[in-house]
Amino acid sequence: MFGVGSLPTWLSRSVYADNGSDRRKKTLVAIFQRGAVDGLNVVIPFGEQRYYDLRPSIAIPKPDGTANSAVDLDGFFGLHPSLAPLKPMFDAQQLAIIDAVGSPDPTRSHFDAQDYMESGTPGFKATKDGWMNRALPPVAGIRSPIRAVSLGSSLPRSLRGRNDALAMNNLSDFQVRDPKAAASFESLYEHTRDSMLQGTGKETFSAVKIMQSIQKQSYTPANGAKYPNGRFGQNLQQIARLIKADVGLEVAFADIGGWDTHVNEVGAQPAMGQLANNLSDFGQSLAAFYQDLGDRMEDVAVVTMSEFGRTAKENGNRGTDHGHANVMFVMGGGIRGGKVYGDWPGLAEEQLNEGRDLALTTDFRDVLGELVAKHLGNPNLKAVFPGYERAKFRGLIG
Amino acid sequence: MLRLKKQMRSWVLAAILILPGVAFTKPSKDVDQAKRQAKLFQKKIPKDQQILHALDRLTFGPKPGDVARVKKMGLKKWVDLELHPERIEENPDLEAKLQPLESLRMTPMEAVQHYPTPQMIRAIAAGRQPMPDDPVLRASVQRLVVRYKVKKENDEEMEPVKTLDEILDASERQTLRNGKPDQKRELLTSLPADKLDDVLIALPRGQRQQLFNNSPVDVQRKIMLLNSPQQVVAYDLLESKLLRAIESNRQLAEELDDFWFNHFNVYYDKGSDRFLIPEYEREAIHPNVLGKFRHLLEATAKSPAMLFYLDNFQSVRPDIDANSKNRKVKRGLNENYGRELMELHTLGVNGGYTQHDVTEVARCFTGWTIQDPRKGGAFSYNDNLHDKGEKLVLGHVIPAGGGMEDGEKVLDILATHPSTAKFISTELAQRFVTDNPPQSLIDKMSKTFLDTGGDIRLVMKTMLDSKEFWSQGAYRAKVKTPFEMVASSVRALGASITDAWALANQVGNLGEPLYRKQEPTGYSNLNSEWVNSAALLGRMNFAVQLTQNRVLGVKVAASPSAETIGSPDFQRR
Question: Does the model's pTM come out above 0.90?
Answer without folding.
Answer: no
